[in-house]
Amino acid sequence: MSDKEIQSDKKMISENDLLSETKAETKAEMDTISKQILELQEKSELTKSEKRRLSRLQKKVESLEAQQEEEKEQYHRDIYYMKEAIRQAKKAAVLNEVPIGCVIVKDDVIISRGYNRRNTDHSTLSHAEISAIRKASQKLNDWRLEDCTLYVTLEPCQMCAGAIVQARIKRVVVGSMNPKAGCAGSVLNILQMKEFNHQVELVTGIGKEECSDLLKVFFRKLR
Predict the structure, then answer these.
(1) In 145-203, where does DSSP find H-type helix?
(2) How big is the chain by its Cα radius of gyration, in Å?
(3) Taking the CA of residue 31 as centre, how many other CA atoms within 13 Å lie in the half-sphere pointing to its CB?
(4) What three-state secondary structure class fits 179?
């Protein structure tokens, strides 16, 4: 993904959206440390111990600021790749399939795409995630998709969540949750079960409104 593409997506995201993604505990910690720094700086003269403490606190703030900036950049990337998954979902809608799309990313490059084709292919296995996982494995010539991130517009079902764990996918980003059948936290969370030998890093709610709207429009047309 080019810097130009990232900047283009940044324009679509308000600062409030970004702040809402910042971890509350990180912000609270920064506020506490900043207050301590201010108290030290207001002193007319510092002891050696206080000078060392001030230096440590300032370095801690720099570290936390860098962490926040990294989180923001990751959020921008998550938005960008979720939009790519949404493009795949729209392909499913054209086929009169439930609009669910998926992309898999490795080293900041999309290595596979998939969208729901269950009715078209007359196959239970033709879910967006399964299609993308199959293509990614072929691309890498390996069933292990370690260090990959999977972006999907709708929370995975039990089959897809199981395949994600089996493929050793590192990270999953979900758009809209599925209260009735989702297995990334709604009905159960297969992705992060401690009983399995692999747990997935999970992010939800990225592009939630657009992903949900796609589904709402689709089902409204069926009525």
Answers:
(1) 158-166
(2) 21
(3) 6
(4) coil
What residues form DSSP beta bridges with 173? 151, 203
> What number is the average pLDDT over the span 157-180?
98
Q: Long-range contacts for 62-69 (Cβ within 8 Å, ≥24 apart)? A: 64/26, 64/29, 64/30, 64/33, 65/30, 67/26, 68/22, 68/26, 68/30
Q: Give the Cβ contact number of residue 223 at 10 Å.
A: 4
15 is an active site residue: no
Going by C-alpha positions, the residue among 150, 155, 208, 207 that lies closest to residue 179 is: 155
Alpha helices in the chain, H assignment, sequence order: 3-10, 15-21, 24-41, 48-94, 118-121, 128-140, 158-166, 208-222
Among 5, 21, 129, 210, the active-site one is 129
Q: Are strands 171-176 and 201-204 parallel, antiparallel or unpaired?
A: parallel
Vertex 36, ends 30 and 41: CA angle to 5°?
Answer: 120
pTM: 0.79
Residue-wise pLDDT for 5-62, tens only, equals 444 444 334 333 444 555 677 778 888 888 888 888 888 888 989 889 888 888 888 8
